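Tutorial, part two.
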Amino acid sequence: KKELGFKGLVISDAMDMKGAIKNYPKGEAMVRALLAGNDILETFMDVPEAVSAIKTAVQEGRISMDVLNAKVLKILKAKSFVGLDRYKPIKLEHLTKDLNDYSSEVLQFKLMSQSITCLQNQRSLIPIRHLEEKIAFVSLDAPNNSVALETAMKYTKNVKIYHLNSSKDIHRLDTLVQELKQYKKVILNVHLSSNRPYKNYGINDQNSKIIATLSPMENVVTCLFGNVYALLKLPEIQTSPTLITTYQDDNYAEDLCMQMVFGAIGIHGKLPVSISEKYPYHTGLDIEPIGRLAYLPGEMVNINGEKLASALDSIVLFGIKEKAYPGCVVEVVKDGVVVYQKAFGNHTYDDEIEPNFEKNHVHRVSDQMDVFDPNIVHSEVFDESQQNGSKMQMDDLFDLASLTKIFASTFALATLESQGKIDIDKPLSYYLPELRQTNKSNLTLRQMLTHTAGLKAWIPFWRHAVDTVSTLKPYVDSHPDIQKYVIQKIIKPSFFKRLFGKKSQIIYDYNATVIAYPYVLDAALKYSKTIWKPGTFSTVQTIDFPIKIHDSLFMSQAFRDSVFVMIKSSPVAFFF
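Running the prediction step on this input gives:
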């Protein structure tokens, strides 16, 4: 303390460890701990015994009252410094959350990611490179909802899972060994129930036999979740081809250990103590990552993860509230690290199974995607297979479409801008003179790239190519229940014609119906054959139909021109 100039509190290690007390008479270890310079003695089993031994040491002159008073005064000053002389009971509400705030979580990740140690890696079993290999995942005495398994499943689904309870499954050990020989790699996660030496580190006859049998197998990666001193009591585990120790058995250890096994994070931890001649102090292999995505707090890649999560949560929840989407999965990746990943909402809106025009289309919002193929047009209103209320999951698969137009245009603009051939802050009309007399003349490419141009989200060009009457009429004729949504015109004959028995004539106005109730056409497009306007498309490329849309589908030049007219005349919402 004198050399370092340290004037703070010195706190002992746990004084219930047998290694610290077994060679001394009762209470003597406490006395010697004070003589060694400790101010506070931590975790001893018999308080009266310790007090009695210290009193005797004072009476015998081994510990002076001046030294004892100095230690007590230092403790009282420390209590005053933290406000204990003005004591107020701690509020118990949200206590767990207060004690384990976000900064604590970040610190846990940082400490654990640097401490996990690989003691051996024969045959280079880790990092696991080939995810197509058959992998067995064996959890020995794992807690429920294993975080290790959840993390492993982020990298591969090609695993066979074995949950072993050492007391219940010891009888099927021979069968298990034969099964595990079929796998290229076996991840053996050993969970010990205690870190305490007096509880034998959680080792018993059953789990030690399972460990001794499985860990030496030639394809096994053994991960020890528990006190590293347990290695001394498990000699067979030291023969495992690959051996990793995490020092703790908690969620952080499980998560990071699996990320290391699959090569998302490197392993650089070293033993902080000497375990044996085989594993002396500072033993530890350096295992480099292989470029897979890691899952860590944003602070580990210089992002304020807490602020990011708060902002994204509010934006996404607002979108769900406003019915912009029923649910979504959001992921943010920086420098190869997933810093945010969360699922929100449901797969579908909570609508009725049966068609309900009034409810689903009061704002006249079409459900169709911008596609030409009527067979893949989707309308939630008529999707009788939808499962209402199904929650969005992290591993849900999404159908991505129309990406080429986004990526190709963005990369092309970035290239042109870097070459000085285009200025993204100049108005569009500078590059496209035909826009000068439109509401888009002063828009810039920067506004378009940042989604602040106010352009219409999408224009269903293909709908303008549909012969609405020819498509809608057969559907309405075959669905009498839909006729009530079709606008009708009553043509009355003249007075003299009525006089001679001529009756009024009812005519269905399909064009007016499509304008007023677009969802009626949506239904027809989903369940009937789409008929295109004459002269719009051809199955053969000719001079009149030069533009290829799809295999055996070519568009006329005239319709191409009408597309640009629709773009130029579309509305713009100005936000500034």
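The longest strand covers residues 337-345. In part three we will examine how such features are distributed along the chain.
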